[in-house]
Amino acid sequence: xxxxxxxxxxxxxxxIIWWTTLFAVLPFGARPVADADEATGWRGAPERPRIVQKxxxxxxxxxxxxxxxxxxxxxxxxxxxxxxxxxxxx
Length: 90
Prior knowledge:
Strand content: under 5%
Structural class: mainly alpha
Helix content: 40-55%
Radius of gyration: 20 Å
Number of helices: 2
Low-confidence stretches: none
Order of helices and strands: HH
Oligomer: single chain
């Protein structure tokens, strides 16, 4: 158990956060190729994609978000079992 969440749920949650963060980080610093293709006019992929750097930033940011979510979930500040977010009794 990781702070009250089983390891499978925590792993799936991390993968979803990482994947979402990757698409948020990918556009940072992307510059298109200066000269467009003669035939199509498309510029294609960036000149220097710096994908390893973006993977590192994605891992760092998603780990911070994941730990924050685990801590908030474990603290009980947000709960679907008790409080105003809970389902009403039948």
